[in-house]
Every structure is written in C-alpha cells, then in structure tokens.
Amino acid sequence: MPRESAKKQRARKLGKRVKEAGARAERAVAKLFEEWWRALEPDVVFRRTPQSGGWAHAEQFDVSGDHVVSHGSAFPFCVEVKKRRAWSAETFVAGRACPVWGWWLQAQEAAAKSGREPLLVFRRPGRTPWMVLVRQEYAAELSVPPPVVTWGAITAEHGAMPVGFWLDALVKTEPRAWVLRV
Question: Which of 114, 153, 157, 180 has its CA 20 to 30 A from that of 104?
Fold first, then answer.
C-alpha cells in the first residue's frame, strides 16, 4: 500500500483542525443560546447536531441546522453557525458577493425543512464579535432593538432580505421578545 504524501497528510490534518474548530464554535453558540433561553424555559437543552447538521439520520428525527433543542421548546429558530476566515466584513456589509450570502441561503433551506425561522450566527476567527442574521420581515414584527446592519436591496439569489444584530446584544434582550407566539 503506497504511503500518503506529506502534502496529503498536512491537508488531512488541516481539514481535521478546521472541522474541530467548527464543532467548538457550534458548541459555544449552543451553550450561549441555552443560557439565554433558560430565562424563558428553565429546562431547555441546546445541543450541537451530531455531525454538524450532516448526521445521516437527521431526516428520521426531523433535525436540521447546527443545533437541536429540547422537544416542545418555543425557540423559533433553525440555527446555522459559521466561523470562517474567507470573507470580509466590508464586502458583506456592502451586499456584494461574499460567502456569507451562501451561508444565509443554507440557513434558509434548513429552516424551511424544520418549519422554523432561519438564524445565521457567524464570525471570523479571533476576537471578532459574532454577527446574527434573521429575516427582515420576522424582525420587523418583534419588539427588539433595531438591527445594526440593514441592506436597501440584495439580489434574489440571496433569498429573503436579512437584518443583522450583534450576538452579545441579542442575548441581553428578553428571550420572549424574539418569539411571535409563546
């Protein structure tokens, strides 16, 4: 059996580290949401979806997104979490081509499967703050602080118009404010 080249070994190790970093980010966001949402539902449990939403049995259990939440929870969102270097805040805020728009589409598709609202949580590695996107129409119906990022228009290929909030500001609000029906 031929030995794996040094280049392939490095690529495999890098892929494993990237996957582990993504899993850590998903667990950290799940913990943050769980602590926040317990003000409304004290027994709620948030967990990272097995295999980060790529779990082979997800269809059997009506699971989509990067987090699963206790059965019967009023948590209205299907959460996608991304922690990646390959995007620029300037390009994203300007509404130009950027990986974030693909992630937003992924969040919308997962939410459609689950019957929940899409919520994308993302940031660049390092000390940058987490940004959260929700549908503009949904946010407009809530009693929450105004978003920090809005767009006049985006192309139809991006799906529903989002608005952006800082995650640390979101979790300082009352959870009930984020639910249309409790």
Answer: 180
First to last CA, the chain: 60
In a domain, 81, yes or no: yes
Work out the average pLDDT over 117-146: 90
Does residue 16 surpass a pLDDT of 90? Answer: no
Range of the structural domain that residue 123 is part of? 6-178
Whether residue 1 is contained in a domain is answered as: no
Q: Is residue 66 part of a domain?
A: yes
Number of domains present in the structure of the chain: 1
Largest CA distance in the chain: 63
The one-character DSSP state at 66 is S
What's the whole-model pTM score? Answer: 0.83
At residue 151, the pLDDT reads 81
What's the confidence (pLDDT) of residue 15? 59
